[in-house]
Amino acid sequence: MIHSKKLTLGICLVLLIILIVGYVIMTKTNGRNAQIKDTFNQTLKLYPTKNL
User: If you write DSSP's letter for every residue of 1-52 in order, what string do you get?
Assistant: First the structure.
């Protein structure tokens, strides 16, 4: 019984770590995409797009 509790606790801990790491990776990716969009919009403002 004690071994099954330790095993369950270990599995839950590993799953929690995986979820936290996945969240951190997704946050970094979204931040990078936002930065790319901002720099693209700043570059686009330099050129007139009225005739497009």
Answer: -HHHHHHHHHHHHHHHHHHHHHHHHHHHHHHHHHHHHHHHHHHHHTS--TT-
- Give me 13's structure tokens: 């801990």
Local confidence pLDDT in tens for the 52 residues of the chain? 778 999 999 999 999 999 999 998 888 878 888 889 999 988 888 887 766 6
Look up residue 19 and give its two tokens: 């979820």
Give dist(CA 15, CA 25) in Å, integer: 15
User: What predicted TM-score, i.e. pTM, was given to this entire model?
Assistant: 0.59
